[in-house]
Task: inverse folding
């Protein structure tokens, strides 16, 4: 279980903080639109998770977990971007609330990772 948590977190890191997130994806995530680059970003995460889950799950469980990852990652990133549009001061790193939103975003992604591990190991 610990190995799966570590590997999914590495996959999450690779999807968010490496060249796998293109400038177009990052810009779209910043404002919550257009949706297609955010969807591609969520697909990137889903593929990375799929590679990890291939070794830990059967086909049905993998399909369910990847569906959860795709939908939740997309929704979380769109919502975070929309918050930046609705409250422009949130996009300024000098604003302490920017970091609260960033932390909540990452916390939400972590909860999904924990949910996926739970579904696999229950």
Result:
């Amino acid at each position: 279980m610990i190995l799966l948590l570590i590997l999914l977190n590495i996959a999450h890191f690779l999807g968010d903080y490496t060249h796998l997130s293109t400038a177009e994806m990052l810009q779209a995530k910043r404002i919550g639109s257009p949706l297609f680059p955010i969807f591609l970003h969520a697909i990137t995460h889903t593929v990375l998770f799929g590679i990890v889950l291939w070794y830990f799950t059967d086909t049905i469980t993998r399909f369910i977990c990847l569906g959860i990852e795709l939908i939740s990652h997309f929704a979380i990133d769109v919502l975070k971007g929309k918050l930046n549009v609705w409250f422009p001061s949130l996009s300024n790193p000098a604003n302490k609330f920017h970091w609260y939103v960033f932390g909540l975003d990452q916390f939400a992604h972590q909860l999904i990772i924990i949910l996926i591990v739970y579904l696999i190991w229950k």
